[in-house]
Every structure is written in structure tokens, then in C-alpha cells.
Amino acid sequence: MQIELNGTTEYGEVWYYFIVGAGKGSKGLAMVSLYQKPDPMLYEESYQTLWACKYSGSQNLCIVPIEKIQCNRFHLQYSLDTHFHHLTGAKTHWLARRA
Questions:
Q1: Rounded alpha-carbon distances, angstroms, from residue 1 to 14, 26, 41, 82, 88
Q2: How far apart are CA 65 and CA 99, in angstroms?
Q3: What is the pLDDT of residues 53-68, one digit of tens each?
Q4: CA distances from 2 to 10, 83, 86, 89, 91 (A)
């Protein structure tokens, strides 16, 4: 998911949605595991198209108001061990962006 968080665009995986409060005072929220920042070298070499982000799992969770979720982007989990040694050690997700 693409999320606007504190004035910046972040990417992450929604674990679940929930509602707090009742009636008119209720608010929709999402528990999100934020990805780490994309690899800058791969981003530049792909002409600002491909983001390769490490998955943080439960180490980088945050609660986000659902209105801050901007869109659902396609991501693909892929092991980069044989191609990009500097990104190994965690699940890596690819995110393709169109200019």
C-alpha cells in the first residue's frame, strides 16, 4: 500500500483494519508494517521506476488512519541473494512505479 505519513510517501503491508469508538465518533484505522526505504542505487539505475524495499515485519509497525492510505500498489516478493548482495538478509519486495 502507498501511505501518506507525516508529509512523506511510505509503502507497507496492511496487516488488518479496525474501528475505534462508536457511532459518529468512530474512526477507521489500519495496522501497517512499513517497508524500509528503497535501495537508492537500484532506483536510479532503473530510471526511477523500480523500488526494492526490505520487509520489516513486526519490527516497524504503525497505526494509520485509513484515509492516509492513498492506493494499493502491486508488489512482488523476490529473493535478490544471487543478484544484489547488498539487499540480502531480509525479504525484499519490488514495487514498480510508473512515471
A1: 7, 23, 22, 27, 23
A2: 27
A3: 777 888 999 999 999 9
A4: 6, 26, 24, 24, 18
Which amino acid is present at 54? Answer: K
Residues 6+ apart with CB under 8 A from 62: 5, 31, 32, 34
Please give the C-alpha separations between residue 63 and each of 1, 70, 79, 95, 96, in angstroms, as whole numbers. 13, 15, 28, 22, 25
Cell of 99: 512515471
Q: pLDDT under 70 in the chain at which residues?
A: 72-99
Which has the closest alpha carbon to 46: 88, 85, 84? 84
For the whole model, what pTM was predicted? 0.69
Q: CA torsion, points 42, 47, 49, 89, in degrees to nearest 10?
A: 0
